[in-house]
Amino acid sequence: MNIAETTKRTRTIQRRVPELVCLPRPVYARAEDMTQRSSTHEHSHPWVQFSYASQGVLHMETPGAVLIAPPQWGILVPPGQPHTVKNTAGTRMRSLYIAHDRLPRVIGHCVVVHVSELLGAMIRHFSGMPVQYDEQGAEGRLVQVMLDLIQNAPRADLALPWPEHAGLQALCTRFMKETGTRHAVSGHWSRALNISERTLGRLFVQETRLTLRTWLQRARLLQSIPMLETGLSVTDTALACGYDSTSAFIAAFHAFMGQTPGSLQRKRSHHPISTFDPHQAAERKVSAT
């Protein structure tokens, strides 16, 4: 079993990206409730993007990494960074578009950050505020506190660095589609590239700054998060991700995430979401003047 087998029955629909020439205020909110798996085309923005899902899992791909954000985590995207966003079915996403001068310490690559209960509540509240909010009044003060919380939110290693080496890219892409494989990856990959296992190990560290073993484990664990979020049992998830035992998977997951797979599942929201069609949903009307 692999992640493709667990999701192939669900159609992925294309989600459009709003066409904004400029931001009507330093911070602009975009709220989306999605009942189906969806994906955007690769795109970038001239401003900072902060994507947060209070329910569901966000999957972001950039030229240099794959990032996964389960509920209560968000992805901070710097200006000009090409990225593709995918989500699981039943995702409640709240995106913020932020003028770069309001988050001056944003680094040059995407990062996953923790969304505290306070920050999550502020983002949800801001998503319902008028687009042309009062910058000088209470609304403006709320926005500034929200930005301070984002800027200082704890970072997490929920990213999978992607190699530039064409041969490694092909092998990594194949592995992500066959996470449940149990063959000896190091030997298989070294033969595919016609190099020794020792050379493969050195090359992989040069390309990703992770050992192959660490990268493979992180890939399996990141792939497990959408499975758990959609309700797949811990045992079935462990098997789908290539673990020989459920206990080994639980131990690895806890070491990586700081919580057990069962704990992550118990945090899932059980509130139904409204129907959302990305082809028909109207963006909030703005006057970019």
Distinct helical segment count = 10
Q: Give the strand content.
A: 15-25%
| Biggest β-sheet: strands ordered side by side in the sheet | 1-3-8-5-6-12
Shape: globular
Q: Major sheet: size, sense and barrel closure?
A: 6 strands, mixed
Q: What are the low-pLDDT stretches, counting only 5+ consecutive residues below 50?
A: 1-9, 269-289
Descriptors:
single chain; 289 residues; alpha+beta; Jelly Rolls; Arc Repressor Mutant, subunit A; 2 domains; six-stranded mixed beta sheet; six-stranded antiparallel beta sheet; 12 strands; disordered N terminus; disordered C terminus
Q: What does this molecule look like?
A:
The chain is 37% helix and 19% strand. The chain has 289 residues and is an alpha+beta fold. The chain has 2 domains: 11-156, Sandwich (Jelly Rolls); 163-266, Arc Repressor Mutant, subunit A.
